[in-house]
Amino acid sequence: MKIVLPRSTIKRVLIRGVNWIGDTIITLPAVRGIREAFPDAHLAVLVLPHVASLFERCSFIDELISYPQGKGLHLINGERILTHHLRRKRFDLAVILPRSLRSALIPFVARIPFRVGYSAYLRAPLLTHALDERKELLNCHQVEYFYHIASSLGASSPYELPVLEVGEGEHTWAEALLTKRGIGEERLLLGINPGSTYGTAKCWFSERFLELARRLINRTHAAIVLVGGRDNASLIHSIAAHLNGQVIEAVGENLLQVAALVKRCRLLITNDTGPMHIAAAVGTPVVALFGSTNPLTTSPLGRGHYLIRKAVSCSPCLKRECPEDHRCMSLITVDEVEKVVVEMLERDHVNTR
Predict the structure, then answer these.
(1) Fold of 7-152
(2) CB 286 within 8 A of CB 267
(3) What DSSP element (H or E) covers 95?
(4) Rounded Cα–Cα distance for residues 288 and 308 (Å)
(5) What is the DSSP letter of 160?
(6) pTM over 0.85
């Protein structure tokens, strides 16, 4: 479906971004495609503050607007203020990337004349142009799902893989942190992301991440970077406490600083979470452990990655918590992951003997 709009009147475009780190990176090609469709328009992106930094170095957008955080009356009041703010900015078109009812409600109340998005969750009446969620779109990779919106608006080029630009300031921060810990440029650095914001169902077991880290330190003399959000802080601290100082904790840092640190790693071992997509977007190979989620829709993009997944009958269930025995993850052994990591390192001529 190609959306027909009076293009000469579209001077100001608002994109409602998604809320999760990995999803935000997956939408970067769609945002670039919307810029292609409206090359002369003022392009603003409305996102939650914790993912805003992922857009800071995007040359194809003109403005970042923060979505209010909070709950209850605090959030309602923040959304009321935001609505008035958007009205004053007089956007001509809102492109709504999330599927939620709430994400479509704000542009509707803000009286933005044209509103485009998927017709999920009975929100078609809030949109002027509602796209059908066809079965093939729900079963393809999410980068294609989001880029379909850009294509419908007139983007004609094939999508480019997400690239996360990291500035000199972030690189300097990462090198200063490593230098402070006595880790020089020649030292092998391996990343591990043991947690997940979404829930435990997609997580490999912390004791297995710990055992894997121990083996890799002993076998390769690598230093380990543990990355994760503040909600995974206790998990990361508990793993780090058993590694005798051979680890750097990057918990809840600025996302571009985390990206700089991950870019310095030879590879990242991770659950299916935001840092997995950060690594792929800065060119760091990924060993991704998939359990409850679907690699067809959320696998790391690009070449050089390795996915480990057990084809059990209940996977992918897409649940936050496993209601059964978590066998999709329990069947993945430390031996298996270590073998994959070692093979990838040897491919890059790293001594693992």
Answers:
(1) Rossmann fold (3.40.50)
(2) yes
(3) strand 93-96
(4) 6
(5) P
(6) yes
d(CA 234, CA 31): 35
- Architecture of the domain delimited by 168-347: 3-Layer(aba) Sandwich (3.40)
Strand ranges in 163-322 using DSSP code E only, listed in sequence order: 189-193, 223-228, 247-251, 267-271, 286-290, 306-309
The per-residue pLDDT string of the chain (353 residues; one tens digit each, 9 = 90 and over) reads 799 999 999 999 999 999 999 999 999 999 999 999 999 999 999 999 999 999 999 999 999 999 998 889 999 999 999 999 999 999 999 999 999 999 999 999 999 999 999 998 899 999 999 999 999 999 999 999 999 999 999 999 999 999 999 999 999 999 999 999 899 989 999 999 999 988 899 999 999 999 999 999 999 999 999 999 888 899 999 999 999 877 999 887 789 999 999 999 999 999 999 999 999 999 999 999 999 999 999 999 999 999 999 989 999 999 999 999 999 999 999 999 999 999 999 998 788 87
Alpha-carbon distances, residue 87 vs 16, 73, 82, 139 (angstroms)? 15, 21, 9, 36
Delimit the CATH 3.40.50.2000 region(s) of the chain.
7-152, 168-347
